[in-house]
Amino acid sequence: MSLSVQGLTIDIGGRRVVDGVSFTVPDGARVGLIGESGSGKSLTALAILGLLPDGATVGGRILWDDRDLRDLDDRTLARIRGREIGMVFQEPQTALNPVRRVGRQMTESLRIHTGMSRADAASRAIELAERMALPDPARIVRRYPHQLSGGQRQRVALAAALSCAPRLIIADEPTTALDVTVQAGILTLLRDLVEDEGRGLLFITHDLAVLSLVATRGVVLHRGRVVEDAPVQALLTAPASEITRGLLRDARATSWSPQTQTPSETPQGEEQR
């Protein structure tokens, strides 16, 4: 078992925003944290990697291979970020450095953790761009984030998270700002990458239809607490809590149906966006 969150609590400004959250992400599993805005799902993800804002107080245990991440010093935790646990943030426009070429950003973590040379990193960036189905990889790695479409920027962020081959990827609503067609392509790519390579995935979303495309198990949060933890298929067909039933109604109201097959992707069309 890779990640085990046990009784996690988070207090910010004297207010408890996450209250006793527990779940596991075994090696190779695809688990989703789902809930409405303010449910505590993103804060839970940030707590795992020690990225909460100053002043936040954390309780409970966050076990990674039986080591409590809360007990590690900053230097040790920094070695785990990127190398063992990769993170894909919600908005690549702000996550990526606007004054650095995207190829360099794809391999920055790799150079830090492995000491890879600049020349080898440049070659690796092209390989990662190909893997992300980005058009004309040798050219695109020399571009800056503002020269790419939103979907392409998210692929760059995903490549950066995967560059060190971490065992677990945490993806915090990585497709929220994208239109439905591009969103579907990113989700398909993410699911296939973690599934084909046996990586674990912790996927954060507010959309049950999206969750059904990438995860096999869902943990439903409401006001900082777990209200349901079940296979995604059970959440879709027999939700046990009113909160989950509300998420299902919302999913059915969108242009995607949770029961439909994953849409195919057309990277060439994305390039034109």
Automatic annotation (TrEMBL):
SUPFAM superfamilies: P-loop containing nucleoside triphosphate hydrolases (SSF52540)
GO-annotated molecular function: ATP binding; ATP hydrolysis activity
UniProt region (Disordered), positions on chain: 252-273
Entry-linked InterPro entries: AAA+_ATPase (IPR003593), ABC_Ni/Peptide_Import (IPR050388), ABC_transporter-like_ATP-bd (IPR003439), ABC_transporter-like_CS (IPR017871), P-loop_NTPase (IPR027417)
Domain ABC transporter as annotated: residue spans: 3-248
Lineage top rank: taxon: Bacteria
Signal sequence, renumbered to the chain: none
Residues in coiled coil: none
Localization (cell): Cell membrane
Main location: membrane
Keyword annotations of the record: ATP-binding, Cell membrane, Membrane, Nucleotide-binding, Transport
Chain intervals with Polar residues compositional bias: 254-273
PROSITE patterns in the cross-refs: ABC_TRANSPORTER_1, ABC_TRANSPORTER_2
PANTHER family: DIPEPTIDE TRANSPORT ATP-BINDING PROTEIN DPPD, OLIGOPEPTIDE TRANSPORT ATP-BINDING PROTEIN APPD
Name of the protein described by the UniProt record: ABC transporter ATP-binding protein
Organism: Microbacterium aurantiacum
